[in-house]
Design brief:
By secondary structure, the chain is mostly beta strands. It is 4% helix and 41% strand.
């Protein structure tokens, strides 16, 4: 991840993946309006701060960002892919490990090599 490139996102709207989840009635649901605004960072900040139209303002530490990818079809500056899941409740936010939603690939079926006379 290139911090200089990501700092160029300041003042722009982006999406985050996986989408932030809000705690509503005890259930976790994706936050409506997936666009986040990147606030200007301080010179030696260890995070980028994002604001949301619903009043959330969340600092995302640099080490929680996996990568940045462009998103030419959505009209945003791009997508920040996170290493952790952002959870929002009331005016508080925190990060949790990502759920393992991708199943681990099964090992290939066993096979044996035949050696011999080639009959």
């Amino acid at each position: 991840m290139n911090k200089k490139q990501i700092r160029k996102l300041e003042g722009k709207h982006i999406r985050i993946e996986p989408p932030a989840l809000a705690v509503v009635g005890g259930a976790r649901v994706p936050v409506p309006e997936p666009l986040w605004f990147v606030l200007p960072a301080k010179l030696n900040d260890q995070s980028l701060t994002f604001s949301h139209s619903r009043g959330y303002e969340v600092p995302i530490p640099w080490d929680h960002i996996r990568e940045y990818v462009t998103d030419p079809c959505s009209g945003t500056a791009g997508i920040l892919v996170l290493r952790r899941q952002l959870i929002l409740s009331g005016r508080k936010g925190w990060f949790e490990p990502l759920a393992q939603s991708i199943p681990v690939a099964a090992p290939p079926p066993a096979f044996s090599l035949r050696t011999g006379s080639g009959t």
